[in-house]
Amino acid sequence: MRQSNGICYKNDVQVVEIHARRFDDKHEPRVEITVTQRGKV
Hints:
The chain is 0% helix and 0% strand. The chain has 41 residues and is largely without helices or strands. The protein has one domain (1-41). The mean pLDDT is 79.
């Protein structure tokens, strides 16, 4: 989470919920991140 500080959000204390899944793709290794804003900022 700390790697996204200042990029996806100001501070990781703003993150209140995380849904994570792992997929192993040997042909196209990658990281996919989706950030969704909910409520007031």
